[in-house]
Every structure is written in structure tokens, then in C-alpha cells.
Amino acid sequence: GPRTNGVTREDSYDITVASEIMAVLCLSSSISDMKERLGKMIIGYTYNEEPVTAAQLKAEGAMCALLKDAIKPNLVQTLEGTPAFIHGGPFANIAHGCNSLMATRMALKLSDYAVTEAGFGADLGAEKFLDIKCRMAGIAPSAVVIVATARALKHHGGVAKPDLNNENLEALEKGMPNLLRHVENVTKVYGLPCVVAINRFPTDTEAELNLIRSKCKELGVEVALSEVWAKGGAGAVELAEEVVRLCETPNNFSYVYDAELSIKEKLNAIVQRVYHGSRAVLTGPAVKQAQQLEQLGFGNLSICMAKTQYSFTDDAKSLGAPEGFEIAVKNLKVSAGAGFIVALTGDVMTMPGLPKKPSSENIDVDENGRISGLF
């Protein structure tokens, strides 16, 4: 601003703070645990680079009051009457991508089998579910379902979006290494049994489905069709039966990294063992931030990679199953309340991506109060 209005001030809204509040909600085991976590949140640093927490501002009680009802698991039901919890919404590309710990524990108590989603690819959602949530909660899955589509695999094989409905076995085979890497990560890195669920589209051909089956069988992994979109629960019987079978199979679950490793060592473990890259390279502020965070006592926290969901690399355009690449870590931000360190890689945006055309443009109300365009 001009001199009459004082010194120009540059500022911005930090979405990672909002993401941490969501992460705190989802990782808290009780109201008292949530209040303690909210108090640990770092909202800035002094001139001496000492962290300033929400508790020092005496703000944790007010924040907890806003969330005291939100922490209760939200019970809904499917069209067929199956109970489900939809609770929490941390994005897996910039946060830990799992629903709330309280909902998961409640589901485990109330049902014989609890199925939970870990958003985006297994390199993000599954890695964070296993290395962050399971480690923090002291729980472990009995089996893993990896969801795939023929369309996505053809995309990884180089097919443009307008042509994905056409049968293309050559492109499908070229894109299969992407799926097979996810499978190998789950079975060999984490030591868990898994099944590949093909989310079937009307345009999928039998030849394409058979190709996926044969390639997965080479790794000793079963494939089951998921046709719930068209048939409801009846379209998932084959998949459910395989999941039940896998849950009775002994496993050798282990984490990708030990919590006591340094920040750099944990970053390298994720890049090398899950992404199949060569190493993580700290650039810019991240070099000093890693040292500072370890000096402040945060070195034993889990790592939450903020990375594109479209590739194993930090480049959204690098499809398939590349190897030997480097991951550039540009910033490290501690989410002390949530209990992890966010590593920002590549050109990832911390503001969640939204569609070019918002759903609101399709929603309307007529003179009789009837709403249209919700679905």
C-alpha cells in the first residue's frame, strides 16, 4: 500500500493448518486426547526460532469446544441398509488420507469385518494408513484390497482420456506395471495378503479383464470383479469372499521405516521402498528445516508425504512404474498435534484440487421447492 497506509504486509492462508486440525480430529482417541493434540499445534515461531503452540495462546479449549460433537463417528447406511461410518476427510495427497481412528475402532467392535478406505493410490493412502495411522493406533489390517480399473491402466499405458472406452490390450499391458508395483509393495514391503478389485465399467471387455487377471496371477494375487455400481451388494460377493479368505491367512506385517530413524532416512525409505526411486533430495528451506525439527525433538515423528497422486514420482506426468528417479523435498512442516511431519514434494499444491465446473452450477430449486441436480 501507499505510505499513507503504512508498510505493505504480505500474508497468505495456510491450508496445512486446516489439514492438521482435520488430522487431529481423525487421529484422536478421545476428547481429552484431541484437546491435548490441538494444544500441541505449532502456529508460528519466535524471533529466536522457538515454536509457539496453540496451548501457549490458550486456544486449545475453544478449538476443542467447536469439535466436541464433530469427533463422534458419523453413522450412515448404504441403500441396502449396511451401516457405515463416514467420518473425517484428510486428503491423502497433502495429509494422511484416512478416516477417524474412533470410527475405525468402533467398527471393529461392532462388526466381524471392518473395511476402511485409504485414499488415492497405495503409494499415498495405504502407505500413510499403515505407517502413520496403524503405528499410532497400534492396529494392523488382516488383508488389503487394491482397487483398479482397466481405464486407469490404459491411461498409464499412454491412452488419452477420450479414447479410454476403446479396447486396447497393448496399452493395457503397458500400463499393468503400475498396478503390479502397488501389489508388490503391499505383499512384499508390508507383508500383507491382498486382492485386486477391478471396478468394472460397462466399456470393459472380457479380453481386458482376462489380461489383468493373468498378470496378477503371475504374482500369486487373486483378482475379483467389483460391480457394485451396477448390481449393489450382489456385485461384490466374489470380492467379499476373497477378502474373508485372506483375513484368515497369516501375514508378516511390518512398517516401511523405523520411527527412530532420522528424517532424511525415513524420507529415503519411503522413496526407495515404496516409490522405487533412488533417493529423497532436500532442497531450499528443507535442509535447514530437517535440522531444526530434529533439534526441537520432532525427529521421531512419522513422515506424511505431500505428493501428486498421479505418479509414483513427484511429476504428475510420469506415468507407469518409473525407477531410479529422485524426489525433491522443498519444505518440511511439522504437524505436532497430528504427530507427523509433512514433506512437500515437487509442485504439489496444499489447497485441495477442485473440478473446473463446480457441482453448484448444476443445482437448482423450482417454484415448488423441488431440488434438482444433486446427483
Order of strands in the sheet with most strands:
8-10-11-9
Q: Calculate Rg over CA atoms.
A: 22 Å
Please describe the biggest sheet, giving its number of strands, its sense, and whether it closes into a barrel. Answer: 4 strands, mixed
Q: What is the averaged pLDDT score?
A: 92
Architecture overview:
The chain is α/β, with parallel strands linked by helices. It is built from 12 helices and 13 strands. It has a 4-stranded mixed beta sheet with strand order 8-10-11-9. A 3-stranded parallel beta sheet has the order 5-6-7, sandwiched between helices. Strands 1-2 form a two-stranded antiparallel ribbon. Helix 2 (about 30-40) crosses helix 3 and helix 7 (about 170-190) runs parallel beside helix 8. The longest helix has 21 residues, at about 170-190. The model has no long low-confidence stretch (mean pLDDT about 90).
Ordered list of secondary-structure elements with their pairings:
Blueprint: H1 15-27, H2 31-40, E1 42-45, E2 51-53, H3 60-67, E3 75-77, E4 83-85, H4 101-110, H5 122-137, E5 144-148, H6 150-156, H7 169-189, E6 194-199, H8 206-217, E7 222-226, H9 228-231, H10 237-247, H11 263-275, E8 279-282, H12 286-295, E9 302-306, E10 326-335, E11 340-345, E12 364-365, E13 371-372
Parallel strand pairs: 5-6, 6-7, 8-10, 9-11
Antiparallel strand pairs: 1-2, 3-4, 10-11, 12-13
Helix pairs in contact: 2-3, 6-7, 7-8
